Amino acid sequence: MNAPLATRLVLLTLVSSSVFSVANAAEPGPDSPKRYRVIFNSDGHGVFKDAGGDLDQWITNLFGPLENSHVDALFWCDGAGGNTANYDSQVLERTGARVGKTDPKLQALIDQGNDPPRVVVREAHKRKLDVFYSFRINDIHDSFILDEQPTFKVKHPEWLLGKKKYGAVTSYPTALNFAVKEVRDLKFRAIEEVFTKYDFDGLEVDFLRGAPYFLPGTAKKNAPLLTELVSRYHQLLRRQSKKRGRRLQLAVRVDESLAACGRDGFEVAKWIEQGLVDHVILGSGVIDIEIAQFRKLARPRGVHVYPCLYGWPSRYSPIPRKLAAAMALNYWQQGADGIYLFNWFPHTRNNSEQTGPWMASMLDRIGDPAGLRASEPELMFVVDRGRPAGEYPSNWLHCILPKALEPGRPLGLRLRVREDLSRKTKSLTLRLQVDNLQAGDRLAVTIGGKPVTGWKSAGKDRVETSVSRSLIARGDNAVKLVLVKQSKTSKAPRVARAVELDVRR
Length: 505
Prior knowledge:
26% helix, TIM Barrel, alpha/beta, 13 helices
C-alpha cells in the first residue's frame, strides 16, 4: 500500500473492567466441589489415533503433557461423540458397527482387559488427577463422518431435527430432538451404564456438542425437559456417591452468555439455584466470554465457573501462543475460577495437529496468572470474530466480524483488554485485516474516540501501526472503522476481518 490511511474521530463508549466479586459468597465446606486451576478436556480420538494401537504410547500421549502441570482435572471423552461408543458398551453400539468398520485396535485393547475408560480412570488416579467422563450429548459429526452415525438415527428419523432454519443458520441433519422422550432416555441410560461400570469422579454434560436441541421456536417451551434431564444426571451421581463414599461432581458446558443460553433452552440459573451442578464451563470457540454474568449466580451457591480456551478460537486455526496467553489473562482478570482447555493437543509424538510442543509448554503456567504474565513476552488481544454455525445457532451473538464496510458508515467493534498495559510494555502494534483493501482506499480508525494514525502495509490486505499505551484502556475498548473513500480500482467489497493488538513486553 503506497498511500497513507486517513483517520477521523468517532464516538467512544468505554466500559471499565475489574474482577467481579459477590458478597456473601458460599464458603467452601468439606463436601464442596473442588476448584480446579486448569481442566483439560481430551476428546480421546486424537491421542488414541496417534498412538497407533500401542497402549503405552496412548497413555503417554494422554498423560505425559499433564504431568508436573497446572492441570488438576481431566475431562475425558471417548472420542465417539456420544452416539456410538469407543468402549465396551451394552447401551451404545461400537463406532463403525453400522457400516462394518469397527476399529480392530480398540477391540484388541478391550479383549486384553484394557477397556479405555478403565485405563483412563486408573492412570488418572495414579497421577492424583480427578477424571470426569465428558459426554457430548448431541454431537453432529455423524452428519459427515458416517462411521459415527448410529443405527438408532437411521431407524428413527422422527428422533432427528433434520435441516431446519434457526435465523441465518441451518441445523445439521443428524441433530437429535430432545423433545422426544426416547432420545432423553437413551442419553440417560448411556451415562447410567458409564457410572455403573467405571469409577469416574464426575460427569461433564457437554451441551455445546451441540445445539440446537429443539425445533425452531420451541426452545423456551421445552427448556424444562433439559432441566429434568440434568436433574436425572444429578440424582444418578448422588446415588453413586453414596455407594462409593465420595462426592461425584456434575459439570455442564454451555454458551458464553446468559442470553445465548436462554435461546438454546439451557436454564442455567435454575440448574445453579436448584443445586444440580458443581461446575459451569462457558463457550466453544468464542473469545469474549461473559464470566461475570455467571459468577453472580454461581458464587453464592459455591459453583465454579470456567471459561473455555479453545484450540481453534474464532477463526484462528490453530490458536497462536500469544493469543492463548492473552485470552487466559483476560479470563483470570474477569474472575474465572480456572481455565478449561478444549481441542488442545499437547502430546509431542506423532501429533497430527502439530501443536504439541508449545501447548505442552504452557500447561505449567496457564493456571497461574502471575506466572503466565511473567513468562510470556508477547500477547495478542483481538476483536472476537465469527458467526453462528449449524451446531451453534446461538453462539457468537456479539460478533460482528467479518463485515463489509459501507463507505461513510462507521463500524463499531469491541476490543477487550483486561490486562494492565501501562507498565512493562515495550511496544503495542495495532493490526487490521480488510479483504480487497486498495492503495487508494481511505480508512479512518479510532479507539476510544481517539484517531489512530501512521498506518503502513503489513502484507496483502493487512495494515499496522504503533499505538501508545495511553490509547488502550483496561476494559472494553470501543474501536470504530470508517471507509471514508473506496478506490475505483476494485469494485469488490472491503470486508473487515480482523482487528489485533500485539503487545511486546
